[in-house]
């Protein structure tokens, strides 16, 4: 059977997908935050990021805010988060990986989260010189 | 730019990615600065068989699958049921799949602060629902038929009536967000989002089927729509 094609989440996804707060993977964890940027370097204010910590079986979803920022509370010793990006203008969601542990395990420098005092920073760039590596899926 | 990633790559719009959408479809203007431009990396083999999150009954509220019963009064519009099965591409049912939907009201207006279409909001309609598929992979929603609405993509642009669907299967790879359309909509030829799907036969997979057999007399019209996710090693397991 043919698989059902993807369509964009559009600008109004939050009424269906963000009715409850789903951004805590570990209540005792540390913060992971970042900004999603479009090809002009502008923050994307109507996007959604989902992360999955397969080693812990915990999942989270964060809508970007008025400054294009997403944020999660994650396990302090998480190694890698499998990540999806959804947005108006994205006809298919994009898959990437956020490496939090050994940077040498990362497929690309853009997939390494930056340790901060209070957790990790991971910006996502859809296009441009510093574009995040996405995976065919 | 020299690409630091030195593994196998495919272009973001390689048709070998499936019967899929052209992610930088020029007719849909927002793709221009948002579709990935960098070649895509090949996913490590073991990640194709990665399990995804499992959602249980605790995810749901009692009236989540009846969008006409979430307020004191009934919403305005044509009452409809939308149901179908979630299957893998071998035709096997996917049990316990989380199905989330959202939609405009009968006038084509979303209950969202960004939606400024000058059509009335309906105090009795929020436009969101969710459910889990049963042992047969079946989901069912009761709702009202959404209206078409204008958008700013190009002069006189209107979206065909649609319901947004979000799905989680058993595997992480089965994640899907898409839109269900209604048969016979005159706006199809003009909608760049619908037409970004390359193959006309694949576009038809997004059309629900009117079903007289399950239409409830004196009550509601029925639409049937099956959703097919790719196969994974996990089908056949019980949720």
Oligomer: heterodimer
Largest sheet of chain B: 5 strands, mixed
**Count of β-strands of chain A:** 9
Structural class determined from secondary elements of chain A = mainly beta
Q: Name the poorly predicted regions of chain A.
A: none
Describe this entry's structure for a reader.
- The complex is a heterodimer of chains A (137) and B (239).
- Chain A is 3% helix and 36% strand.
- Chain A has 1 helix and 9 strands.
- Chain A is globular.
- The mean pLDDT of chain A is 96.
- Chain B is mainly beta and 239 residues long.
- The chains are: A mainly beta (137), B mainly beta (239).
- At the A-B interface, α1 and β5 of A face β2, β4, β5, β10 and α2 of B.
In short:
The complex is a heterodimer of chains A (137) and B (239). Chain A has 137 residues and is mainly beta.
Task: Describe the structure using short key phrases.
heterodimer; A: 137 residues; mainly beta; five-stranded mixed sheet; B: 239 residues; four-stranded antiparallel sheet; 4% helix; 25% strand; globular
List the helices and strands and how they pair.
The complex is a heterodimer of chains A (137) and B (239).
Chain A (H helix, E strand, L loop, with lengths): L13 H4 L12 E8 L9 E7 L4 E6 L5 E6 L5 E8 L6 E6 L14 E3 L2 E3 L2 E2 L12
Parallel strand pairs in A: 1-8, 1-9
Antiparallel strand pairs in A: 1-4, 2-3, 2-5, 5-6, 7-8
Chain B lengths: L8 E2 L29 E2 L37 E10 L9 E6 L24 E5 L5 E7 L4 E3 L5 E3 L2 E7 L7 E6 L10 H4 L4 H5 L4 E2 L10 E4 L2 E3 L10
Parallel strand pairs in B: 3-12, 3-13
Antiparallel strand pairs in B: 1-2, 3-6, 4-5, 4-9, 7-8, 9-10, 11-12
């Amino acid at each position: 059977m043919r698989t059902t094609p993807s369509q964009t989440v559009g600008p109004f996804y939050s009424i269906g997908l963000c009715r409850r707060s789903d951004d805590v993977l570990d209540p005792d964890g540390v913060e992971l935050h970042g900004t999603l940027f479009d090809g002009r370097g502008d923050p994307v204010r109507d996007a959604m990021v989902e992360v999955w910590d397969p080693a812990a079986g915990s999942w989270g979803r964060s809508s970007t805010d008025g400054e294009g920022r997403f944020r999660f509370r994650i396990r302090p010793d998480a190694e890698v988060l499998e990540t999806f990006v959804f947005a108006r203008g994205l006809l298919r969601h994009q898959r990437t990986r956020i490496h939090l542990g050994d940077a040498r395990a990362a497929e690309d420098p853009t997939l390494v989260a930056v340790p901060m005092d209070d957790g990790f920073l991971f910006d996502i760039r859809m296009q441009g010189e510093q574009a995040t590596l996405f995976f065919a899926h | 730019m020299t690409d630091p990633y030195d593994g196998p790559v495919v272009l973001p719009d390689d048709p070998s990615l499936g019967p899929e959408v052209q992610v930088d479809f020029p007719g849909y203007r927002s793709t221009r600065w948002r579709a990935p431009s960098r070649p895509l990396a090949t996913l490590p083999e073991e990640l194709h068989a990665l399990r995804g999150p499992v959602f249980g009954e605790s995810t749901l509220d009692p009236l989540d699958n009846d969008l006409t019963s979430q307020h004191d009064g009934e919403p305005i519009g044509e009452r409809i049921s939308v149901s179908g099965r979630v299957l893998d591409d071998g035709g096997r049912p996917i049990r316990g799949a989380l199905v989330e939907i959202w939609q405009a009201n009968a006038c084509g207006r979303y209950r969202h602060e960004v939606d400024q279409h000058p059509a009335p909001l309906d105090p009795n309609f929020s436009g969101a629902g969710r459910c889990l598929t049963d042992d047969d992979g079946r989901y069912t929603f009761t709702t009202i038929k959404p209206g078409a609405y204008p958008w700013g993509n190009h002069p006189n642009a209107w979206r065909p009536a649609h319901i947004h669907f979000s799905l989680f299967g058993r595997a992480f790879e089965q994640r899907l967000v898409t839109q269900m359309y209604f048969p016979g909509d005159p706006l199809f030829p003009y909608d760049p989002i619908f037409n970004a799907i390359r193959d006309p036969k694949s576009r038809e997979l997004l059309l629900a089927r009117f079903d007289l057999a399950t239409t409830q007399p004196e009550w509601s019209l029925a639409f049937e729509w099956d959703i097919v996710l790719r196969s994974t090693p996990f089908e056949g397991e019980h949720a």
